[in-house]
Amino acid sequence: MKIISVQFEGSKIQSNQLFLYNFPEYAFIGRTNVGKSSLINWITNRRKLAKISSFPGRTQFINPFLINHQWYLIDLPGYGYSSICQKKKKKIQKLMMDYIFYRKNLVNLFLLIDSRIFLQKSDIHFIQKLKFFQIPFCIVFTKTDKIYPRILNKNIDFFKKEFEKIFFSMPKYFKVSIKNRSGREKIIQYINEIYKKNFSLRRKTKYP
Ligand SMILES: Nc1nc2c(ncn2[C@@H]2O[C@H](COP(=O)(O)OP(=O)(O)OP(=O)(O)O)[C@@H](O)[C@H]2O)c(=O)[nH]1
Ligand SMILES: [Mg+2]
Questions:
Q1: CA dihedral 163, 83, 144, 35 (to 10 degrees)
Q2: Contacts of 99 (CB under 8 A, 6+ apart)
Q3: Interval 58-93: pLDDT, tens
Q4: To test the ligand 1 pocket, which listed residue (33, 46, 96) has its Cβ within 8 A of the most ligand atoms?
Q5: Which domains are assigned to the chain?
């Protein structure tokens, strides 16, 4: 699938602000600084589309990007550490959670995990919620250029074991490095696969 057009529809600061079109949505989530916005830029081949920063907490709103006038990539704020004040942080987290648990058009969530860091408490807590509310998701191990391939595979094996211990089965996963330019095609291919298979909107789920 070729990405021909990308249209930014403006940041959404409230979860009830509807997007322009009723299209399937593929969203990116994970701890702050894990590389969500960078991955969206890379997938769309537009370096300055989503704002990137080395400081955790850069993305603070829901940012929808309309692709080929057919589907959306959604950049979400991260969870976990950031230097933003507590009040603002709570507001951002509510916005993000409302989107994930209420949005009918969300077809798949890509949960990004830094490949150097094992399952964190905040990840486990978040995955528990995804499981409980039956949100379809897969895992993307990011920044794979930052460790040796041998260590990367060891880390992923360890992650899988831990994941299976808690959640029984490991979902589909991808490995990406923006620096090494690897992993992009597989993600686009997967989006294409699920796009073709079904655009049956998810049923409305209840916010915890
Ligand atoms: N080496 C390397 N650095 C990366 C990679 N992906 C992202 N980064 C860097 O990681 C930092 C954070 O990237 P962002 O894309 O802003 O992360 P984010 O998850 O959107 O962060 P928030 O919006 O703050 O939640 C930036 O300095 C990126 O350049 C990668 O694959 N390899
Ligand atoms: Mg971001």
A1: 100
A2: 15, 27, 62, 74, 76, 106
A3: 778 899 999 999 999 999 998 876 677 788 888 888
A4: 33
A5: 6-197 (3.40.50.300)
